[in-house]
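Task 17 of the worksheet. Students: predict the tertiary structure of the chain below and write it out as structure tokens. Keep your answer in the requested format; marks are given for formatting as well as content.
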Amino acid sequence: MEEGNGESKESQTGFNKYACICVIFASIISLIYGYDVGVMGGAMIYMQEDLKISDTQVGILAGIINLCALPGSLSAGRFADYIGRRYTFVLASVIFFLGSILMGYGPSYAILMDWKVHCRHTSIPSLTLAIGMLKMPESPRWLVMQGRLGEANEVLLQVQDKSRSGQGVWKELLWRPSPPVRWMLIAAIGLHFFQHTAGIEAVLLFSPRILKKAGINNKSKLLLATVGIGITKTVFILVATYLLDKVGRRVLLLTSLGGMIVALTGLGFCLTMVEHSNETLYWVTSLSISATYIYMGFYSIGVGPVSWVYSSEIFPLRLRAQGFSICVAVSRFMNAAVSMSFILIYKAITIGGIFFMFAGISVVAGWFFYFFLPETKGRSLEEMETIFGKKSSSQNLEMPMKPAN
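Model answer:
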């Protein structure tokens, strides 16, 4: 009797330890990416000196990883449908592991450099992910798509999920999309476009350069400030995790953008003052650091994590893998474009000017989010076509959705 009550209680609360472990292991991929970006930001302080490369080459180095990720992003959906989600994770982890080792042991250098140590450490979480995913179950949705209903049922009993069958097709997604699918694509692509054009790469990858422009010249202090940015990002992502299903996606996105616009405007103002001053303005330096941290906090509470959640939940099962692949490809392309062009643009319009530009883009992003992204809180994956099918005018998207029964 007690066992039955225990099972009933767990079912009512919706918490399942096994499902939680699976999610944690799958989420290691985000840890890998975040660590890789953070490491590059700090390592680039030394890379330019060690490798004797120009600013243009630094920009290319910062963005080339994402540019090279484009083929993988576009093929991930097909791999996920063909060999399954789990083995796609394992394959990606092995490739990432090998790439991290090669980055750390550059063949043209005889002396071990500190930035190489950082790069080698990136291989640890990717290896952990590869080993861990071998112990995880396959996605029940993929198993159903393959006709392996018995195995899918076993997994569903363990993680307490619901699923319907379907099949992903590029033709329906790109060449002849229905009106709901077309609006899904517009929403998802626009979301990932603005996720990067609002300046996140500038803050993450080039924070040491920005803070140096603001008046911090000590390398140790630059690294410490960069670490602080990473900690801020992590803390506020945890806050977003708590708020996501309480206040909804739209509220977090719009609140996030509001804070980002204020922070970017403040940072642009501070950096402009520094450029036009012949002496060190310590209060401006402090404001620049504060604006950078505020920007990262607001980004990490909304635009950063919600973009991935939103784009992963709006596509129906038959289009889910390919649809999300397109989102990842757009994200990687925009990441590369902003990273590679940042130094060139700020040299053309000043370091303060580029942050005013990011603030302006964020204003446009706010308009797009308000009119083109309906609230999806409380809706299942299978209900999204109905939500986006109601898109006959922007007014439909502004109306709050009724919670799911």
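Marker's comment: The CA atoms of residues 97 and 264 lie 35 Å apart. DSSP finds 21 helices and no strands in the chain.
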